[in-house]
Amino acid sequence: KCNPMGYTKEGCRGIDKRHWNSQCRTTQSYVRALTMDSKRKVG
């Protein structure tokens, strides 16, 4: 489940929540790619 805040044990972040609101159940490889991309966007 995805928390309203966008933070979950899976590693869901508020930024990631934008791309997938209720789809926090993704493979770690996909999450890693998202995390790397979001970090670059955040700075």
TrEMBL record:
Q: Which Pfam families match?
A: NGF
Q: Per UniProt, which keywords does this protein have?
A: Growth factor
GO MF entry, a single one = growth factor activity
Q: In its UniProt record, which GO terms are filed under biological process?
A: cell surface receptor protein tyrosine kinase signaling pathway; modulation of chemical synaptic transmission; negative regulation of neuron apoptotic process; nerve development; nerve growth factor signaling pathway; neuron projection morphogenesis
The Nerve growth factor-related domain covers 1-43
GO cellular-component term (any): dendrite
Database matches in InterPro entries: Cystine-knot_cytokine (IPR029034), Nerve_growth_factor-like (IPR020408), Nerve_growth_factor-rel (IPR002072), Nerve_growth_factor_CS (IPR019846)
The record's annotation in SMART domains points to: NGF
Q: Which family does it belong to?
A: Belongs to the NGF-beta family.
Q: What is this protein called?
A: Brain-derived neurotrophic factor
Source organism (scientific name): Protopterus aethiopicus
